[in-house]
Amino acid sequence: MKYLVLLAVLVIAYMVWRSARLENRKQDRRPPPPGLPQEMVSCPVCGLHLPQPDAVKGSDGLFYCSNEHRLLRGG
Ligand SMILES: [Zn+2]
């Protein structure tokens, strides 16, 4: 019976030690920088997906991957 108590104490000590270790590891790990959600658009000419700020907006309201493709569509 004495050994059972000793075993229980050891198990509890191990669990506390393990959770403390996990807590430390959690603090070490830096959260990923919150990237701004970028809206992706696809070029209607070639189908390329690119972030909207990088796209070229045509007069038709569509987003193109490049000025060449915009002109190709006459936008
Ligand atoms: Zn394109």
What does this entry look like structurally?
With 75 residues, the chain is an alpha+beta fold. It folds into two domains: 1-30; 40-72. Helix content is 44%, strand content 13%. It is built from two helices and four strands, in the order αββββα. It has helices at residues 2-28, 67-72, and strands at residues 40-42, 49-51, 56-57, 63-64. It has a two-stranded antiparallel ribbon. A hairpin with a 5-residue loop joins strand 3 (56-57) and strand 4. The protein starts with a helix and ends with a helix. The mean pLDDT is 88. Bound molecules: zinc ion.
Keywords:
2 domains, two-stranded antiparallel sheet, 44% helix, rod-shaped
Distance between the termini: 85 Å
Radius of gyration: 29 Å
Helical fraction: 40-55%
Find the count of extended strands (DSSP E, 2+ residues).
4
Report the β-strand fraction as a percent range: 5-15%
Low-confidence stretches: none
Biggest sheet strand order reads: 1-2
Biggest beta-sheet profile? 2 strands, antiparallel
Q: How many DSSP helices?
A: 2
> Helix and strand string, N-terminal first?
HEEEEH
Question: What count of structural domains?
Answer: 2
General form: rod-shaped
Determine the mean pLDDT: 88
Instruction: Report the bound ligands by name, code or SMILES.
Output: zinc ion
Which secondary-structure class do the elements indicate?
A: alpha+beta
